[in-house]
Amino acid sequence: MFQRLASGGRDSGAVTLDRFADSALTRLAFAGTTHFPVSAEGDPGHFADLVAEALTGADVVYCYERMLDHDGHGFGVGSWQWLDRLGAVDDSIAHLISTLPPTCA
Q1: Angle, helices 80-99/44-55, rounded to nearest 10 degrees
Q2: Fewer CB within 10 Å, N or C, the chain?
């Protein structure tokens, strides 16, 4: 999808963990996009800053928060660990929404 966007003249960004930036899966999945590396996982301010930076030049920004997925696989969806993480992700999203311009969807 990112390659299609790029071929149509639309820039995109991906906010994902920096340690996966050079993996084969990341290079394949995010070909055609600009990577904005998350170095402080779990820091909502850092995440929001990267999204805002990506939005300065991108029409579409993909964001990945891996810990909810990790806890779902490790403990099961609906476990107390997953539900706690879901609450933290919800708080992070609320913070992100409060920092984004009203034109974002």
Answers
A1: 40
A2: C
